[in-house]
Amino acid sequence: MTVKDLNTGNCFDDCYDKLLLAVGASPIIPPFENSQLKNIFTLRNLHDGVAIKQTLSNSNIRNLIVIGAGYIGLEIAESLVALQKNVKLICNSPLK
Asked: Looking at the chain, which runs of residues are DSSP E strands?
């Protein structure tokens, strides 16, 4: 594969047996009033997803807000709409 060093701009060919992409992202809860209330979740791993699914099993929960319009935020918003939930998506910059 061709690799480009973004610091120097140099390009070179390299090969690998296995490739691991570790983006290092972690979810952030913005500092807003009452951010420690129950039913505020982050989603980064299976445990987080199970906790959200268990909470959503309560049919009284209809309106949800997803903060973040990155890949994970958009995927969860789409999944929530498929579950017949009313979803508002909040992002830091205008959608294009």
From this structure: 2-4, 11-13, 63-67, 86-90
Reduced to 3 states (helix: H, G, I; strand: E, B; else coil), residue 27 is coil
Q: Is 56 helix (H, G, I), strand (E, B) or coil?
A: helix
Contacts of 4 (CB under 8 A, 6+ apart): 10, 11
The model's confidence at residue 44, banded by pLDDT at 50, 70 and 90, is confident
- How distant is the alpha carbon of residue 91 from its chain centre? 11
Q: Which of 35, 38, 40 is CA-nearest to residue 65?
A: 40
User: Hey, what domains does the chain have and what are their CATH numbers?
Assistant: 37-96 (3.50.50.60)
What is the spatial distance between Cα 76 and Cα 89, in angstroms, rounded to a whole number? Answer: 10
Query: Could you tell me the pTM of the whole model?
Result: 0.66
List C-alpha distances in Å: 81 to 12, 70, 75, 86: 44, 17, 10, 7
